[in-house]
Amino acid sequence: MASVNLDIDVLRTLVTAQRLGGFGRAAEQVGRSQSAVSQQIHKLEERVGLTLFRKQGRGLELTEAGETMLVYARKILELNDEAVTALRGAAIDGVVRFGLCADFAEVGLPAALGQFKRAHPGVRIEVTVDRNYLLLEKLDRGQLDLVLTLGHGARADAEKIAKVPLVWIGRAEGEPPWQPGQPVPLALFEAPCFCRTGAIDSLDAQGTPWRVTFTSPSLYGLLAAVEAGLGVTVRTPLGMPPALAVVGPRLGLPPLHNVDVSLHAVGGPTAPAAVRFKEIVRGVVEQTLVDARLTVPA
What is the pLDDT of residues 278-291, one digit of tens each? Predict the structure, then answer.
């Protein structure tokens, strides 16, 4: 049986279309017309002998074969890009000081670090996990080169990646940690914190009484307190432990707003290592949010 060679450009278009939610947006990013992108996908379907997309309402959705192709397309592109960056950047060295909030420390950081280290073994990465405002203070003082934050998209140096929802998080099973008529018990970060502000403002707007029952500077401390039944908290669903769940609708808690996911570098990263690391972090975070179905319209 003759070998079938897959076109890297077409695979990149396929992944881009799935990430951005359509051929039109993908066409803009890859610099082609929408008809040219559609033709690319059609040729790919002819090459593999399978239908990759089917109509769903006014749009398109991946078929089962398309989902399988997408998984392999991502792997092929990752290897392709690693090979190119390794060849072009073999001589890159230095240090990149990277800060990120705890929400991304487990779901996005390992993939980004692993991908970068394989391509640039000569670069040392120093990682700081902390609260958003503390990371930005360190960035402003020149103690960090790049920071990934939630809820700080209004800063002049913010490069927005996506918007994600804030949700009420509580125990997945069991009774609520308060009785009808009692104030809602809250487990929150110390001020300043946009999640704390969002929780309190939304409850006040609804006319629901509340009280802070647990305060911690640590996300893990907050989630442990919620799991122990000390209250509910407000965060993104990223990295939520299995014992916890989104409980807002079930408990009659008010809706919350969406927050920006942003990368920050004062003046923009200039060192080759920092520039490349930023590219990898952005790609990994975008894909993490797509896979978790957390990205919401801007």
Answer: 888 888 888 888 77
pLDDT category at 90 given cuts 50, 70, 90 is low
Tens digit of each residue's pLDDT (9 = 90 or more) over 140-186: 999 999 999 998 888 889 999 888 999 999 999 988 999 988 999 99
Tell me the C-alpha distance between 139 and 99, whole Å. 8
Tokens of 257: 């707003």
Q: How many CB atoms lie within 10 A of CB 150?
A: 22
* C-alpha triplet 9, 15, 16: angle, nearest 5°: 85
For the CA atoms of the chain, what is the radius of gyration?
22
Rounded to an integer, what distance in angstroms lies between the CA atom of residue 160 and that of residue 149?
A: 10
Fold of 8-87: Arc Repressor Mutant, subunit A (1.10.10)
pLDDT of residue 78: 80
Strand order, beta sheet including 244-246? 233-235, 167-171, 244-246
* Tens-digit pLDDT profile for residues 98-107: 999 988 887 8
Q: Are 232 and 184 in contact (CB under 8 A)?
A: yes
Q: How far apart are CA 192 and CA 258, in angstroms?
A: 18
What SS3 state is found at 90?
A: coil
Tallying the residues shown for the chain, one arrives at 298
167-256 fold: D-Maltodextrin-Binding Protein; domain 2 (3.40.190)
- What's this model's pTM, rounded to 2 decimal places? 0.70
Burial grade of 18 (CB within 10 A; 0-12, 13-18, 19 or more): buried
